[in-house]
Amino acid sequence: MSRELHDTIGQTMTSLIMGMEMLRSRLPDTEVNRLDTLLHMARRGLNEIRGIVHNWAQTTGESLTTLEPSFRELIEQFQQSTGGSSSFASTARNMN
């Protein structure tokens, strides 16, 4: 499970970062700072997700519910930075 999360989320975030970098030359100077903020957030989020998944994979007896607070924090940071809205729903159950 942790490998699947890492691969799926990691590839998605990396693609987003690359796509945003490609947009840099097309943006007016007034929007480059906003792009830089989004890129910083995406890179930080990618690193956090990698760390969370790595730690989770090495910790026995933990369920997906332990990741929920981290995902919620990332979503909140995204919303604050972009002004967009997102939602998160978890159907994971604690297996302990």
Detail the poorly predicted runs.
Answer: none
Report how far the terminal alpha carbons are from each other.
17 Å
Instruction: Specify Rg, calculated over alpha carbons.
Output: 15 Å
Estimate what percentage of residues fall within beta strands.
under 5%
Give the overall shape.
Answer: globular
Biggest β-sheet: count, sense, barrel?
A: none
Q: What value does the average pLDDT take?
A: 76
Helicity, as a percent range: 55-70%
**Structural class of the helix and strand makeup?**
mainly alpha
Query: Total helix count?
Result: 3
* Annotation, overall tally of beta strands: 0
Written as H for each helix and E for each strand, in order along the chain, the element string is HHH
Short overview:
The protein is 70% helix and 0% strand.
Features:
3 helices, globular, single chain, 96 residues
